[in-house]
Amino acid sequence: MSREPVPHLVIIGGGFAGLWATRALARENIRITLLDRRNHHLFQPLLYQVATAGLSAPDIAAPLRHILGHQRNVEVRLGEVIAIDKAIRQVQLADGSSLGYDSLLLATGATHAYFGNDQWAADAPGLKTLDDAIALRRKLLLAFERAEAEPDPAKKAAWLSFAVVGGGPTGVELAGTLAEIARHTLRNEFRHIDPASAKVRLVEAGPRVLSSFPEVLSLKARRQLEKLGVEVLTGTPVSDIDSLGFKLGEQFVPARTVVWAAGVAASPLARTLDVPLDRAGRVQVQPDLTLPGHPELFVAGDLAAVNQANGKPVPGVAPAAKQMGKYVADVIRARLHGKPTPGPFKYADYGNLATIGRMAAIVHLGRLQLSGVLAWWFWLAAHVFFLIGFRNRVVVLLNWAVAYWSYQRSARIIFGDDQEDRRPR
Amino acid sequence: MSREPVPHLVIIGGGFAGLWATRALARENIRITLLDRRNHHLFQPLLYQVATAGLSAPDIAAPLRHILGHQRNVEVRLGEVIAIDKAIRQVQLADGSSLGYDSLLLATGATHAYFGNDQWAADAPGLKTLDDAIALRRKLLLAFERAEAEPDPAKKAAWLSFAVVGGGPTGVELAGTLAEIARHTLRNEFRHIDPASAKVRLVEAGPRVLSSFPEVLSLKARRQLEKLGVEVLTGTPVSDIDSLGFKLGEQFVPARTVVWAAGVAASPLARTLDVPLDRAGRVQVQPDLTLPGHPELFVAGDLAAVNQANGKPVPGVAPAAKQMGKYVADVIRARLHGKPTPGPFKYADYGNLATIGRMAAIVHLGRLQLSGVLAWWFWLAAHVFFLIGFRNRVVVLLNWAVAYWSYQRSARIIFGDDQEDRRPR
């Protein structure tokens, strides 16, 4: 009696899509290899809190091996995939090895993009990984140190001038939190500057911030930002960025710290698939999230371009990635059991939330629209609830509680042993 | 009516000595500048916990500006001192600026030293700063990843072979915690290795570990280490270290991960003072912690070589540094008020504690000698109590509670965006 070989599913990326697909297949007779460049799953919605020193890196990350340790049909492998050969069903790794598969789920997500202005990257870093967050934290905290040490008033002001480019959720969160740090957290701590005099600008090319929300909520978000001390500039695309500031049209605005929250592009691995990509580099998948002619090759999460029933694209948010991951698991499970596969992927939109800063947020759930303190509590509960792991939830809640009573941010620690950073220029 | 100018005290180093001196002078009519290369005070006794992923960096550090924000006679300055000119009472900073002083407290502590074998530094990193701890954490966690990916059994075993050089408190803590991680924390998480099969060796050149304790406690510490799974090698100096392992005499022992906890040397700034240093590079100060002929220049903490009344040197431990800092403040206060200065510095020895690992420690307090679980609880209470800042204490206790019930270590997150690190060799 010969046994059927156990099919091999390779999942690239341990983000929401990859991890949710893996867990949904826990009881199936399938061999799963989960490949990721990093050893941890990252709760990206709270990454801005690490960048702004409210949380420490381990608070919002959990080792993939630990999350999946007891799921015996999974092997977690730390490695970087550099190419996918869909004809021979093989992935190539950066260490020279390769891995064959029966099914593949590609879920490597998105990175930030400068739309043809890659030279801005050095002066306007983005925020997608823990390393980005730690680097941004250092940059933000050192700007105040440089301002304190600088005798020249104009140069001092430039160190106290911050700009966030991009009025989406990340840009709004960063700008709101930065204003809070300047106005409250650093109070009393400097002798030659008043941190509260720092300028925080949010620059958005489009007509309004948080444009995925109804117009009335966008407007409320803008008012809340302004109340926190952020200057909101809409309808003004940035035309240049360098180490001293940025340009709006022909007008130069001094700002030693510019953060990029404007552009998102799909992970470059998609290019090796040799299939049509959309303008943002995402893979145009079929309604069942597979590639045409390759029912064994799925793409999910931020890397997948797929439409909702109403013709609008599925947004690049965590709930959509989780739903796609579970959907892919459903299709694979149905095939394993020889049952009919489910119909096309349907995105269930449970609503949209965005936080703005201290006790400020907006919420849009069907006909329910909230803003202000109530929306903020709603946002907090939802985010802490969805954090993976008991320990993270408790520690994050505790940090938040202490932060909100004391205005303190416990992770205000500069590390990264860069000599250059310590010397005022 | 002319006002006396307020005297200027410069303190270099925000460790235990510098910070305790600063705080003790809070109510005096003196202008204090506290200079540090880093923006935070570090609770060094728990640094090994960051290296072994039990705590995150911000748990054991607090921003100096925050600690001292309300002490109006202090200015905190981020900067690196490169030389001291005691003739003209001036310190030189790396950014080219200089700073005059009326009194100076030099308290820059110690760094690790390889006793003429600096080529070992790359393969056997030490542990003195948060950056060291984050780098060591990455190295330890990646060793298990490399072992998992390595097909060759001998190479696999070398990745699972760990050595800690130096049987002092840091070496013992690191070896004990590493054994715990291998035997408990990583259980179930790998598919091609059994982490519990990892070899953890503690190599000490002298005849026993923790030699500052009575012999009977040293022996108990050794037994506790062995019970945790550590192989203790005493009387065996290391003769060479490279990336593949280390040598004991002529015998080569494969070990891809070697940690240096053997040598401590005073901070190199002392050399610019142009005064006699001891073999470890520490400044030989007078009984009042000043330099001969320079009553305005104090040295305190790990950088100061001074004897106790019994002729033994004052040990390089946190309580001694705090006591020296307070003593310097007492001398300066007496001078400010034109009162007689206190007699020579006297070290009050309140006892000696060392932790070994899970529920294992030794304690020596006068005639009281403890080991095992009771000693561990004693150690835990003392260390958490002395952690600066309410938030740190609560978070650290919470982390410990969760870690001890679950055997989990919450900070098992690899960051540091080194491409090299992600590729198994």
UniProtKB/TrEMBL annotation, chains A, B:
Class in the EC hierarchy, top level: oxidoreductase
TM stretches of this protein: 368-390
Catalyses which reaction(s): a quinone + NADH + H(+) = a quinol + NAD(+)
Annotated External alternative NADH-ubiquinone oxidoreductase-like C-terminal domain residues: 351-401
EC number: 1.6.5.9
Domain of life: Bacteria
Family membership noted in the UniProt record: Belongs to the NADH dehydrogenase family.
Name this protein carries in UniProt: NADH:ubiquinone reductase (non-electrogenic)
Biological source species: Stenotrophomonas cyclobalanopsidis
